[in-house]
Amino acid sequence: MMKKDNIEQLFERLQGQFDLEEPKTGHRDRFMEKLQQHQGTVALHRKKSTWWRPLSIAASVALIALLGLQVFNIRPSIKQQVVQIAPEVSNTEFYFVSLVEEQVQLLKNQKTPENAQLVDDTLMQLEHLENDYKQLERDLVNGGDSKIILNAMITNFQIRIDLLKEVLNSIENIKNLNSYSNENITI
């Protein structure tokens, strides 16, 4: 009990004299450095340098900028590259594409149960020809012989148009045959 009373008396006597302020920033580091110097040891933990923080921020910004350039660096499309290589292609292509689209629409309008297989086969052939045309465009952009490739591109469109004309004529002939046989039956 006596020790407890001594401690209580000590605290009562020192009341109001306690240091309640916090030490300055870096106090612990300075204290450890002085302690190690006093003991004759070499400090393994040196004061942290702050040069790496701005450097890491700069590196992060540079990385984000580089990624942004990669994302927004849009290469011209194959069509745009073809027009750059051979500007006359755009006018020719526009003409042929509009003609082919017009004929395809006529073909689709002529589709009936009797000629459905013929129309579907024709549309599939046109799709193959379109894929061939896209390959020709890629070949042209990749540095192929431009005269030969441009000639093949025009031939591709001509084949499409000839195919569509032939199929539309066949459908017309089928209609005429059907109407002729219907006329003979009704007589």
Description of the molecule:
With 187 residues, the chain is mostly helical. It has a domain at 78-186. It is 77% helix and 0% strand. The chain has 7 helices and no strands. The protein has helices at residues 2-14, 27-39, 52-72, 78-85, 88-109, 116-141, 146-186. α4 packs across α6 (116-141) and α6 packs antiparallel against α7. The longest helix is centred in the C-terminal third of the chain and has 41 residues, at 146-186. The protein is elongated and about 135 Å long. The termini are far apart. The mean pLDDT is 79.
Rg calc: 44 Å
What structural class do the secondary elements suggest?
mainly alpha
pLDDT averaged over residues: 79
Number of helices: 7
What sequence of helices (H) and strands (E) makes up the elements?
A: HHHHHHH
- The stretches of 5 or more residues where confidence is low (pLDDT under 50) are none
Termini gap: 137 Å
What amount of the residues lies in strands?
under 5%
SS elements, strand count: 0
Assembly classification: single chain
What proportion of the residues is helical, as a percent range? over 70%
Main beta-sheet annotation? none
